[in-house]
Amino acid sequence: MNLVALLLNALTLTAILMILALGLAIIFGLMNVINLSHGEFVTIGAYTLSVVQALGGSYWLALIVAPVVGGALGLVIERLLIRFLYKRPFAAIFATWGLSLVLKQLILLSFGPAPVQVTAPIVGSVTILGESYPGYRLLLIAIAAVLISGCVIGFKHLRLGLDIRAVIQNRPIAAAMGINTERVYAIAFALGVALAAFAGVLIAPLVVVIAQMGENLLARSFFVVILGGFGNIAGVAVGSSFVGGLETLLSYNLPVTLSQALVLLLAIIIIRFRPQGLVGA
């Protein structure tokens, strides 16, 4: 593998992890809820792509439908389950773990254990600095960059983004200022899982789409959030770059499973000596 491909592979993984971790960071930073079902919404996004394509729809349609489906499910789940667990973090862990098992079984019942085939919107390679590189991976990087930039702008300038930031910093004061905190919580949870579903569509053409595909991504996304520091986008960016870049570099010479284990081990060591994360909460 040449240097250009190595860097672009690192950027691809970093982009995927950043979208996933951003959703987790929003949910935990705002609600103090560790959502162990986050990976299943990645899977739901991937299967949404499969269903849309099976019905004759395009990848681009699935890129819109998947986050809508994820967001709608998020609103329902927040209203029926998560809303009662904001002040019970340990109960929330078990509840979202149970939700993860339920969603996984529903996916298995609906689609079976066999891998599902999906197709990328573009095929072939693009020549960069004299080296060929898969065109879809470049498209993924571009889409992720647009999405993340939009999230940053939204959090800084849109009313909803400002409300979310205000509630994260101090819920009682935000409520006293007239912000509907329950509405913000519901929308933020829906946004977090919608981002996971969106990431599922992006990653589906690159992996084997099965009911368990979100498990590995969930673990790495949590480490990204913890490593970067809770509650800020800069921390998510730093954590994603660290995990994505180092894992790609190690996997060049080591088995993928071993490289992932070494990255997570190093992340644990860093967190041990810097529990607030590389950027801080």
From TrEMBL:
Keywords: Amino-acid transport, Cell membrane, Membrane, Transmembrane, Transmembrane helix, Transport. It is a multi-pass membrane protein. It holds the Pfam family BPD_transp_2. InterPro entries: ABC_transp_permease, BCAA_transport_permease. It is found in: Cell membrane. One of its GO terms (cellular component) is plasma membrane. The keyword Amino-acid biosynthesis does not apply. GO terms for biological process: amino acid transport. It comes from the Bacteria. One of its GO terms (molecular function) is transmembrane transporter activity. Belongs to the binding-protein-dependent transport system permease family. LivHM subfamily. This is Amino acid/amide ABC transporter membrane protein 1, HAAT family. The lineage of its organism: Bacteria, Pseudomonadati, Pseudomonadota, Alphaproteobacteria, Hyphomicrobiales.
